[in-house]
Design a protein that fits this description.
This protein is of the alpha+beta class. About 20% of the residues lie in helices and about 30% in strands. The strands form two sheets. A ten-stranded antiparallel β-sheet has the order 1-4-5-6-12-11-10-9-8-7, with helices on both faces. The longest helix has 17 residues.
Amino acid sequence: MIGIRRGIIVAAALAAALAAVCAWRFASSSLAGGAEPFNPLRGMFATVSNTDRDLVDLEIVGSTSRIPNAHQIEPGRVLRFRLEKAYVIALLTEREAGYEIVEFSVDRNTGLPESFFQAVATKGPGSRDIPGVPVLSLSQQIERTMLIELRSDWPTTALERVSRKIIPCHGRQLESGLFENNPTNGDACHLPSYPPQSRYIAPYTHDLSLIITCHDYPLPTIDCEVQFPFHGFAVSLTFNHHQLSEWRVVVEQAIDFLNSKEYR
């Protein structure tokens, strides 16, 4: 599900547009873990312009479902993160573990929270001067942004099932290593007529292929999505179609980010 993510990024794009619109490194990567006891944040919030650099703890506990009467905890799947709150653009949790949804927004080029770039580009009362953060155009911000979403009920096994189903769907191979989706090779290869979209098959490991879906929107946005495996979870990664040919690099950057923020 990418409704939360897409709503947030479109809102951010519109706000930036109305207002004014390197090597890969990770800010505060040494802050994961530490002497403070782990105290996961619970609650619900969403933001498009948070620049809070205070550290927060987040926990995602694997479960079979977010539906209460179908819900079972999977204690072998647990992720813990300690990172600056500015990275977190959405958090949905319940009192009980196993109902978590969390989303991070990251600038690919610097590893900094994407909200920093919105803040320095905004004209008016919300504008901020953050050292080391350049003023980028709206299109530049969009092309550099990664949105990373984790959910309790998204296991790696779901990716494995999909990978087996799409074996017949391989079409023409592209220079990026992707394969076009051939919609004539069975029900698993069919695409919905709306919204307009393109689908690609991405060979990831010897026995696992991922699906990349790119949507065609009239406004510039973060429009391509792929799910990849990470410690038992299927992690959703959304990025701009200009980075499609570098899909594997983008996935590796997302994994590096998650590793750097894990609480150990």
